[in-house]
Write a structure and sequence with these properties.
It is a single chain. This protein has four domains: about 150 residues, VC0802-like, CATH 3.30.2130.30; about 190 residues, Vaccinia Virus protein VP39 (Rossmann fold), CATH 3.40.50; about 90 residues, RNA methyltransferase domain (HRMD) like (Transcription Regulator spoIIAA); about 200 residues, Vaccinia Virus protein VP39 (Rossmann fold, 3-Layer(aba) Sandwich), CATH 3.40.50. It is elongated and about 105 Å long. The chain is built from 20 helices and 30 strands. Strand 10, helix 9 and strand 11 form a beta-alpha-beta unit. It is of the alpha/beta class. The protein has an eight-stranded mixed sheet with strand order 2-3-1-4-8-7-5-6.
Length: about 725
Amino acid sequence: MSDRFELYLTCPKGLESLLAEEAKGLGLDEVREHTSAIRGAADMETAYRLCVWSRLANRVLLVLKRFSMKNADDLYDGVNAVDWADHLAADGTLAVEFSGHGSGIDNTHFGALKVKDAIVDKLRNREGLRPSVEKIDPDVRVHLRLDRGEAILSLDLSGHSLHQRGYRLQQGAAPLKENLAAAVLIRSGWPRIAAEGGALADPMCGVGTFLVEAAMIAADIAPNLKRERWGFSAWLGHVPALWRKVHDEAQARAQAGLAKPPLWIRGYEADPRLIQPGRNNVERAGLGDWVKIYQGEVSTFEPRPDQNQKGLVISNPPYGERLGDEASLLYLYQNLGERLRQACMGWEAAVFTGAPQLGKRMGIRSHKQYAFWNGALPCKLLLFKVQPDQFVTGERREAQPESAQVREQAPSVASEPARLSEGAQMFANRLQKNLKQLGKWARREQVDCYRLYDADMPEYALAVDLYHDWVHVQEYAAPRSIDPDKAQSRLLDALAAIPQALGISPQRVVLKRRERQSGTRQYERQATEGRFQEVNEGGVKLLVNLTDYLDTGLFLDHRPMRMRIQREAAGKRFLNLFCYTATASVHAAKGGARSTTSVDLSKTYLDWARRNLALNGFSERNRLEQGDVMAWLESNRDSYDLIFIDPPTFSNSKRMEGVFDVQRDHVQLLDLAMARLAPEGVLYFSNNFRKFQLDEHLMARYAVEEITVQTLDPDFARNNRIHRAWRLQLR
């Protein structure tokens, strides 16, 4: 075997240039970059050194042979021509990994089988001994990569991927791979800061990956020093004396590094379930003196190093994948920016995120950005200098010539909220204007939940509802003609503006995305927080849930109808069909109804209705009936003086007989209900289907009056098509 080898080092996508730089520093020559890999030339000692010291590579592959191939026979012959007795005993074990396609090989399993057959046939001896396949822990792991008609045959010197350092046996929901974490630290300038004796803090540390990798860099510990099993351990070409030299050298450097006074490296994590796993990871890495993890929220983050040293704040905040995540994540990033401005003056900061648009909301300019990949997800590393001249906060300030003056002003600059964009400021102004106008009306009417904004400005297609001291935001789905990135940016603008404009805590803003719903989707559970708020409306108390369902349990646009029912209900038998959470029934009971009957198919909503009634002291004389409304009406023989019907546009619940379509079925529905209406009684019918047309034959049979205009309050004046309503009586 020659003294020098071609080496091929793989890595996560985006780390190629960093790995090339690292590998050159460790002795690799003639370095060239490829996608997710680099290659170069080195002796065996350097190959071992790359294995133990590379913080960024996944695998170190030693290239045995390159050959051209046109078909499967060429593949077999090329692999079979290698003198495999130099690498593997006849009774040894091997694993084969095959990647690429072409040259008649479109199936990687078939390709791997061909490679295995070629090796086994070469090594089968006269006694019939032959290597066997062992996928978990083989003596030799062979790689063959097919690239545009060329086969690259390699031995894997690493064994398990080098990102698996061995200290992280417990991990959180979305951990960064160790080599990606190391790359982020290197790009963030941590080696320089550590060399200067600086500090490091992670306000959302999870199970401590950044902390451990940072400490290993600072203490000069080879990342794979503790690995016991390598890809070369049972390889016949292994040179133990060289390996011992490299390993002993790394061991000595680690001992010297750990003997130094430890740097101040601290992590904070809000989730108490992750604290112990994080501490266990630190202990397994042997870094208990260097790294400490505490429980702490981002909102209280304040690094206090023992000698007041500055350093690096590094964080990998959540990116967001679920419905409504935008609101909570925006405020998390804003909070992080605020803590940096208030508690980390003079530090550097690095935020690694798959949602870089959120990074722009932190109120600090990033002076550098680097593109990375976290698996298949494109990410950005945003670098910040936490200095007043980098802040993008509420008020512009002139730069001060004297540094003392800057220091003097820093706290007041830091405490300002992040500056709103021009569009966000216009949106905030509109909210404040609406609040001023509608607030007076709401207080007069004893209403503390109402619509504040309903797509008043077309570019901000949102409905913003106030529920006492909470804000419920619904984003209307943007037309396909609108660029999704632009729509997302406007949404974030609006979410940034709402707390500032309304003087409300960001934690009390709930976002939902409102799209055209099919079937019963609007009634499906979106979350499971189970948190109910009490609101007031016209002298009654009602429970709303802002988080768990698309709708809140209270249709705000029906408030005038509910108030009308309250005024007219005295002494009457009231029937509420498709009652939902029975808010109209509560109003009827408040108005002195002799009895109320509420019918709905959903047990969940009837339980909610029961709670609404009980909250106001109503239980007796108030029936709650579970059932399909049409079937219930057909079997019912009671008489009612006041009936309210607000059906869904469409429903195909499994518990229903058939499918309900309001346009198709409203005549049958109203005929059945009118049959239950007492003489002189009144039926109110409403629905929110925009294209709805009342059947003209109904007008011939009953006294029908459209009362839509009378059932709209000032908060829905802009959206007078939110529903239509009619008053029906027997002729």
